[in-house]
Amino acid sequence: MKLLDEFKQFLLRGNLIELAVAVVIGAAFADVVKALVKDMITPLIAAIGGKPDFSELTFTINGSQFFYGDFVNTIITFLMVAAVIFFLVIKPVNALVQRMHREPPPDPTLRKCPQCLSDIPIAATRCAHCAQEVPLLAANDMAS
Prior knowledge:
58% helix; two-stranded antiparallel sheet; 4 strands; two-stranded antiparallel ribbon
């Protein structure tokens, strides 16, 4: 019975469920992107550049026929799918994540010398540039 319990625990593990959902959603999303490319972008390219289907392009060597047009179609479809995913998914999601993930500014490690305005360490009591004594900052001044 222990083996069956381990198998059940494996199947119900959170990562496995999330992975299964991701695969199903990914497949559905791939169908949407393929339809967008096939039904919208390819006809647009055909309207601008002419022929949308290269599958009939071939060449023959020693009686063997090479259908390089199918390969060209596949490469164009791949590039269009990659462009659609990049511009309609990756760029907007990255912008959204960047907008939502703002880090607080780092604690300052330098301050200005009041005499010569050179950068000096925040805990310094004498300027390394002009040798002028610098008042020590209070703990609450260092935090601001």
